Amino acid sequence: MSLDLITQENQISNINIDKITISSETIDDNTPKYMKQAKILSISLYLTGIFAIVGALYRWGDGPIFNAPAGTDLQLYITDMLITAPATIISGFGFQKLKKWVVISGIFTSGILIYGSALVYVDVILNGAPYLLKLIIPPIFGISLSIVIMIWVKKYYTLL
Fold this sequence. Notes:
Blueprint: E1 2-6, E2 12-16, H1 31-57, H2 75-97, H3 102-127, H4 132-156
Antiparallel strand pairs: 1-2
Helix pairs in contact: 1-2, 1-4, 2-3, 3-4
């Protein structure tokens, strides 16, 4: 293949191109893999944030938070709405856009998810569980998501 170029002196130069090889030390072979993983983490975090808001508003199946009987402890539900949901949605945005601050927000969100999961398990152990499976499965997802976030951050933080 031949390519004609015009230089600054308005002269035509002819360049033969047989094979073009582009290599860079800054491009990692895992680029598509880590981007795909970040997208999956982003979707998971967005969904977790949405579920935290909706679940908290309906007290995780016990009725709307605004119609709660007097004396009902609403701390966990309010914490879900004010801390868990925004943290997971912000982390989801960070993973979607691959921002540098996603390392800190991901670690923060992981801590919140692990703490919330531990609270659910302690509550189930101390008070019993009317719906054992419904209370056991979501914390497993939270802990699993936290572990995946921590592994991703440890593995790819240098690429951000």
